[in-house]
TrEMBL record:
The active site is at C273. InterPro entries: PEP_carboxykin_GTP_CS (IPR018091), PEP_carboxykinase_C (IPR013035), PEP_carboxykinase_GTP (IPR008209), PEP_carboxykinase_GTP_C (IPR035077), PEP_carboxykinase_GTP_N (IPR035078), PEP_carboxykinase_N (IPR008210). It catalyses: oxaloacetate + GTP = phosphoenolpyruvate + GDP + CO2. Pfam families: PEPCK_GTP (PF00821), PEPCK_N (PF17297). Transmembrane segments: none annotated. It comes from Anaerohalosphaera lusitana. The keyword Transcription does not apply. Its cofactor is Mn(2+). HAMAP family: PEPCK_GTP (MF_00452). This is Phosphoenolpyruvate carboxykinase [GTP].
Length: 624
């Protein structure tokens, strides 16, 4: 138990007062255990005063976890050279004997896992301050709110959370002693002179679903260390599955249709596949870019952004393709840059459309053009997964309902992926069941720099949430199906693909074309335009896209562009659904029957279309 006498030199009377004010036994036990295990020098407890948040930022600068850049408010943090992304290989659920999450989800024995991770945490805070922060997932005082406590020795982690998360100390008081909160314990482990974790071979991210607690050690990369992001998403998916709501890897945004109409969409895209840039499209409004909770409130789907900041990929952010983000990153405000190139106090990154300096400092230390790492590989100026962290309130395109406790009404869901040769740029599902099964549960995407490992490999990624699903996959599909069926009128479901390429490897679309796909989906939600039937859903008519390209992008859209982009590629589609069905058949023990039935009907429709039109169907032929 947490008493001052037990931790005399560590816990001050003021610390004790802040903790006891929350009057929560489970919290006291969690903190007391963390103190005895990690052995900090002292505590800093954030109670959400502006001075507390300023102190967190100051600590990050004092320890060297971050350093200031020339623009006021901007700082930079480096993660270790081998600590640049989420680490699925060392992320695991802790399960009791007899429990299983199926073959696709990494789990280990709970007792053994706790023993291992606690051995790395032991004494890890020596001569460091234990930072304890309280956050609220979702807007405060809302049916969506979930309280969370983060313990960390990294002021960078706490600082990131103070930008990304809603404050939660008062919300914790409202818990009234209940154990209904998520808990995160993080330790950076031994650090080098750049303040980066060194023992990455002992990097572990272990998730205890029963206790709703996550332990993470020997890493600083935010996707592994910032509890409130992907670690909380895992716990939320688990919790949501028993309460008929959804916790998803999705942006939330307002699509601005005709006559001032705003229609809210969520969008699930694997990491680094255009999720943030869709949510930040010009003339639209962003509610959130990464994680959404969706609930049935009085028969309607409503959704919130779990966070209130963005931890976005900086690569290729430039004034032409991402004008809103670029402006936010070049204006004085509280922004953390990570793993960019810094020269003369300025951040640089690949694809920013400015000349990069030949020398500077980056995640590898001192950097110069042509530098090779210890494996002889070229070190890029900025890491491909380099990021920025910024509050949504810094953005002029923030939606006015971002913090609404009731969320926003959800009318459409978009499932995207990185796919060079199969899916058309946008297609609406015929109904909720087909949308969940043929779009969300069938996502395959080529891998990116957001996780460690080889890039460009086509990988099954259910709802773009594969890295985070914390329940057996069949049950996850079933929850999604049930959720839609519990609504009076479920949201329309769409697939998008921004990554179609021609035989020379050139992309078939411009980066901002996604505006048109989104606004066509907006029109479809309101039945404002008809659509063309394909074996897998409904695609746009050419004549409905032409005015959208002209009005929104000032672009001529040719029949030839349309034909190339919207050709129905039957052999690729048959192969895709065959691959995905095979995954469900061979690796998912609890696949609902409706999934196989839906694949069967779809295959029959694809084969019938192939017989009538051939392998590659010109969309104009279907429109006749
Ligand atoms: C992602 O990779 O999907 C991100 C960044 O949003 S991380 O916090 O690493 O998950
Ligand atoms: Mn993400």
């Amino acid at each position: 138990m947490l008493t001052q006498s037990k931790f005399d030199k560590i816990v001050s009377p003021e610390d004790l007062r802040k903790i006891t004010a929350l009057n929560n036994e489970k919290l006291n036990a969690f903190i007391a255990d963390a103190i005895s295990l990690c052995q900090p020098r002292d505590l800093f407890i954030c109670t959400d005063s502006p001075a507390d948040h300023a102190h967190i930022r100051k600590m990050a600068l004092e320890t060297g976890d971050e350093f200031p850049l020339a623009t006021p408010g901007h700082t930079c943090h480096f993660d270790g050279y081998r600590d640049q992304a989420r680490d699925p290989a060392h992320t695991a659920y802790l399960l009791e004997p007899g429990q299983t999450l199926g073959k696709n989800i990494k789990s280990i024995d709970r007792t053994a896992g706790l023993k291992e991770v606690r051995s790395y945490l032991k004494g890890s805070y020596r001569n460091r301050t234990m930072i304890i922060c309280f956050w609220c997932l979702g807007p405060t005082d809302s049916p969506f709110s979930i309280s969370a406590v983060q313990i960390t020795d990294s002021p960078y982690v706490a600082h990131s959370e103070s930008i990304l998360c809603r404050p939660g100390y008062d919300q914790f008081k409202n818990l009234d002693g209940s154990s209904d909160f998520f808990a995160f314990l993080h330790a950076s482990g031994p650090l080098d002179s750049h303040h980066c974790s060194t023992e990455t071979d002992k990097r572990r991210i272990y998730i205890d679903l029963d206790d709703e607690t996550v332990y993470t050690v020997n890493t600083q990369y935010a996707g592994n260390s910032v509890g409130l992001k992907k670690l909380a998403l895992r716990l939320a998916i688990h919790r949501a599955s028993s309460e008929n709501w959804l916790a998803e890897h999705m942006f939330v945004m307002g699509a601005h249709g005709p006559n001032g109409r705003v229609t809210y969409f969520t969008g699930a895209f694997p990491s680094a596949c255009g999720k943030t840039s869709t949510a930040m499209l010009p003339h639209q409004t962003i509610v959130g870019d990464d994680i959404a909770y969706i609930r049935n409130i009085d028969g309607r789907a409503r959704t919130v952004n779990v966070e209130h900041g963005i931890f976005g990929i900086i690569r290729s952010v430039n004034p032409d393709d991402d004008p809103e983000i670029y402006r936010a990153l070049t204006t004085p405000a509280e922004v953390i840059f990570t793993n960019v190139l810094v020269s003369d106090g300025k951040p640089y990154w690949t694809g920013m459309k400015a000349e990069l300096p030949q020398t500077g400092e980056n995640h590898s230390g001192d950097w110069h053009t042509g530098k090779l790492d210890s494996d002889g590989k070229p070190v890029p100026p900025s890491h491909r997964n380099a990021r920025y962290t910024v509050r949504l309130s810094e953005l002029p395109n923030r939606d006015p309902h971002t913090d609404d406790p009731a969320g926003v009404p959800l009318s459409g869901i978009i499932y995207g992926g990185r796919d060079s040769d199969t899916l058309v740029p946008v297609e609406q599902a015929y109904n909720w069941t087909e949308g969940i099964i043929l779009k969300g549960a069938s996502i395959e995407s080529q891998t990116t720099a957001a996780t460690l490992g080889k890039e460009g490999v086509r990988k099954f990624n259910i709802m773009s949430n594969m890295d985070f699903v914390a329940i057996p996959l069949g049950r996850y599909v079933e929850n999604n199906l049930d959720f839609g069926h519990s609504l009076q009128s479920p949201p329309a479901i769409f697939s998008t693909n921004y990554f179609l390429q021609n035989e020379n490897g050139d992309f078939l679309n411009g980066k901002l074309d996604k505006t048109v796909w989104l606004l066509w989906a907006e029109l479809r939600v309101h039945n404002d335009v008809p659509a063309i039937n394909t074996p897998t859903g409904l695609i746009p008519r050419y004549e409905d896209l032409v005015p959208l390209f002209a009005d929104k992008l000032n672009k001529d859209y040719t029949e030839s562009d349309y034909t190339k982009q919207f050709t129905i590629r039957i052999p690729q589609l048959l192969e895709k659904y065959h691959r995905v069905e095979n995954i469900y058949r061979t690796t998912v023990a609890d696949t609902p029957r409706i999934v196989f039935d839906t694949f069967k009907h779809t295959r029959n429709r694809l084969i019938a279309a192939q017989k009538r039109y051939g392998d590659y169907i010109n969309p104009f032929d279907l429109a006749k």
